[in-house]
Amino acid sequence: MLLARLRPGHLLRAALLRLPLPRGVGGGGEPARTPGTARAEQAHKVVASYKPSQFDKKILVWTGRFKTEEEIPPRIPPEMLDRARNKARVKACYIMIGLSIVACFAVIASAKKAAARHESLTSWNLAKKAKWRKEAALAAESKTK
Predict the structure, then answer these.
(1) CA 122, CA 120: separation in Å to the nearest integer?
(2) Which of 32, 76, 100, 123 might form a disulfide with 26, Cβ 3.0–4.6 angstroms?
(3) In Å, what is the CA distance from 32 to each residue of 21, 25, 86?
(4) 43 burial class (0-12, 13-18, 19+ CB within 10 angstroms)?
């Protein structure tokens, strides 16, 4: 194999020519690891690095992650809080959807009652404008006197 075979998704390899591989890629297509890499990754990975606020504690309890606020440790992983916030966001959305549906039915019931009393926005608007005309006429008469 003098030059490499070109296939999609494979690195260009040359048996006779030692071409430099892209940075961070070992011979098998995986990132190259040095002996100290594992220790360096562990040093940067902190398990519990976030101190939750009172609001965060309420979210953790409301989403069911902990039963009481006293059970929450002083430091928690940020991923735990992210999951709890997402769950709380979904719960809040479901509550708002339910309230919107209830409000729609309340408006429908109110509109049906108003229609039974022969009330409409048009009649209210006409009555309001007639009242304004009377007030304007009275104000004009009082100015002329």
Answers:
(1) 5
(2) 32
(3) 11, 6, 36
(4) exposed
**Whose structure tokens read 């108003």?**
114
Would the pTM of this model clear 0.85, i.e. be above it? no
Name 51's bridge partners. Answer: none
Domain borders along the chain are 45-124
Angstrom distance (rounded) from CA 111 to CA 119: 9
What single DSSP character describes residue 134? Answer: H
**Cβ distance 77 to 50 under 8 Å?**
yes
12 pLDDT band, cuts 50/70/90, is: very low
C-alpha of 128 from chain center = 44
Count of alpha carbons within 13 angstroms of residue 20, beta-carbon side: 3
Q: Collapsing DSSP states into helix, strand and coil, what is residue 31?
A: strand
